[in-house]
Write a structure and sequence with these properties.
By secondary structure, the chain is α/β, with parallel strands linked by helices. The protein is built from 14 helices and twelve strands. The chain folds into two domains: 244 residues, Aspartate Aminotransferase, domain 2; 125 residues, Aspartate Aminotransferase, domain 1. Bound molecules: pyridoxal-5'-phosphate (PLP).
């Protein structure tokens, strides 16, 4: 364990904010929407004014999330989608965005359904090919959005390569780090401007919180993060005190949960690789995976807890396998301690480009023997 990680895992466990002045070992939840002024009508240093602008639980959480990504500041949102919106909003009217062709479905739909009337346009490219990104750049291109490993095909984008292209043209870069998490990838190490998370997933880890965040580094253009902050506090896209408290509680076990997700995922991927009923395995930890070389270069501590498989046969057969599983729940979302499978074509709906026989798997932290046995009985 590196020195840096040791101190971070300790930081995530302890509560040292002003809300802990009573000496409570578990962080108290501050529900008050407003806070008392001092004799002069002002506020003591660091005191909040009004819950939309700031709240002690949110402040403590933002400090921990910024530290986790080795960033300077973090802004927490009511969902991952609200966090993503704060960046699109910051770009301004008439901007062009480059997106990966394999991407969290909701990110693309946000642009199509909500931002088209703002004149925001996007081009989807295969980001495993840097030349494709260069070709897609226009005069109005303001942002290159990355997601690596991508959803649901676990394509790996060379973050450093993309940043180099973007910097030459003065284009912002953002990385949706929800799947990799800071445990496996640190996008700021490669010069990314903004990191986005759906904290609903691994950071929460228990499928019981909806949330998102944006993290800025020392090098993020100040004006951009200010717009993100404005979207949060003026726009009011803020999480509740309870959700920030619960997420803070989840972070305490982050460094214990993540290695188990990764080691279980490797073993399950290896099991699938040799199973006659499996047509293809998407997992960057496999030496045969097309993204493996770059994943090895930019990921650390393993390759994450997400994988996808193509089941031999048609969609009906794939859904049958999903329904035969007993430990894996057939449900959307990911990143919880419990294992889930998701038929993306069903979840994404009519415009889905996911193969009909693809199952996305969020590998939980149960006993790996149980997980493998469960697929053994479902695949026969
Ligand atoms: C879930 C998810 C989102 C959206 O986050 P919500 O919290 O559901 O709004 C964005 N990106 C990725 C990669 C996700 O998995």
């Amino acid at each position: 364990m590196s020195e840096n990680k040791t101190s971070l895992s300790t930081l995530l466990i302890h509560q040292n904010g002003p809300e802990n002045s009573y000496g409570a070992v578990s962080q108290p939840i501050i529900l008050s929407t407003t806070f008392e002024r001092d004799q002069n009508g002002g506020f003591p240093e660091g005191r909040d004014i009004y819950a939309r602008a700031s709240n002690p639980n949110r402040q403590a959480l933002e400090g921990k999330l910024a530290a986790l990504e080795n960033g300077k500041s973090a802004a927490c949102f009511s969902s991952g989608q609200a966090a993503t919106m704060s960046i699109f909003h910051a770009l301004g009217h008439g901007s062009h965005v480059i997106l990966p062709d394999d991407i969290y479905y909701g990110t693309k739909v946000l642009i199509d359904n909500l931002y088209q009337s703002w004149g925001l346009t996007c081009t989807s490219v295969d980001m495993t090919d840097l030349a494709e990104i260069e070709k897609a750049i226009k005069n109005e291109t303001k942002l290159i959005w990355m997601e690596t490993p991508s959803n649901p095909q676990l394509k790996i984008t060379d973050i450093e390569g993309v940043v180099q292209i973007a910097r030459k043209k003065g284009i912002l870069t953002a990385c949706d780090n929800t799947w990799a998490t800071p445990y496996f990838t640190s996008p700021f190490d490669f010069g990314v401007d903004l990191i986005m998370h759906s904290t609903t997933k691994y950071l929460s880890g228990h499928s019981d919180i909806l949330g998102g965040c944006i993290i800025a580094s020392e090098n993020t253009p100040e004006g951009v993060f200010q717009k993100v902050r404005d979207f949060q506090t003026l726009g009011g896209a803020v999480p509740s005190s309870f959700d920030t408290w619960l997420l803070n509680r989840s972070l305490a076990t982050f460094f214990v949960r993540m290695p188990v997700h990764a080691s279980n995922a490797v073993k399950l991927a290896e099991f699938f690789e040799h199973h006659a009923a499996i047509e293809k395995v998407y997992y960057p930890g496999l030496a045969t995976d097309p993204g493996h070389v770059i994943a090895k270069k930019q990921m650390k501590n393993g390759f994450g807890g997400m994988l996808s498989v193509l089941i031999k046969g048609d969609e009906v057969n794939t859904l049958k396998v999903a329904s035969k599983l007993k430990i894996f729940k057939h449900a959307t979302s990911l990143g919880g301690v419990e294992s889930l499978v998701d038929h993306r074509r069903t979840a994404e709906g009519t415009h889905s480009v996911s193969p009909p026989n693809l199952l996305r798997i969020s590998v939980g932290i149960e006993s790996i023997e149980d997980l493998i046995e469960d697929f053994k009985q479902a695949l026969v």
